[in-house]
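Proteins fold reproducibly. Take a sample protein:
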Amino acid sequence: MRSDRNNAAPLGLKIAAGAGLAFLHLPILLIFLYAFTTEEKSYQFPPPGYTLQWFAVTWNRPDVWAAMGLSVRVAAISTAIALVLGTLCAAAVSQTKFFGRETISLLVILPIALPGIITGIALRSAFSFAEIPFSFWTIVLGHATFCVVVVYNNAVARFRRVSGSLIEASMDLGADGFQTFRYIILPNIGTALLAGGMLAFALSFDEVIVTTFTAGQQSTLPIWMLEELVRPRQRPVTNVVAMVVVLLTFLPILGAYYLTRDGDQVAGGGK
């Protein structure tokens, strides 16, 4: 009893934690609330009434579907590129030793450490210098720069937990490199890659700053939302779309958390 009492958090710490969580999540709840308001032109609190009409209005807006489709395509292709490049970089850095390995690791994670506006300006300058017109693929390339980092961080951590004895045993038993990767490495790093892919998709789906510099005249869903807030036509529609974005990005992050929370054991350790 005394041990449990000593391990209990102080009341002040509980209050501070609750206040911090409220500060972070109450604005999100307000987004959900204003998706049901009957007020079209302003954010009046409390809302004068509640309605579901804005969900039907949003469903019938072709500009919403166009922006969402573009965001999904960009996020999917950026994630696929990130899975390939991030996994290869992680394998090279964690499984081999060569001159400049730590420098390469730093260069891989640098895009996500830099402010987004710096990355955006750099990409826009590079595309302009190379006379590459802004298009769907310039958005994909811009998003892939930071999606690779997310996959790399997950993959390199899991690679370092895979015992080298497993790979050596596979080779000793006659497996070639592809077979070793398919039957030994991939089952051990698969959840980390899936989690990294989910996080990369969520990060790409709601990215604004880099997209602003690389999209040209196209509008992804976050860019569409930003434009709607600046020049509002139907404010609740923006909140309905925001609610959808919250749900679409929350689910991959939640899935990534559950996939990686038990990944701290070394596969093959002690065998």
About this structure: Residues 62-95 form the longest helix (34 residues). The chain is about 75% helix and 0% strand. The mean pLDDT is 77. The chain has one domain: 61-268.
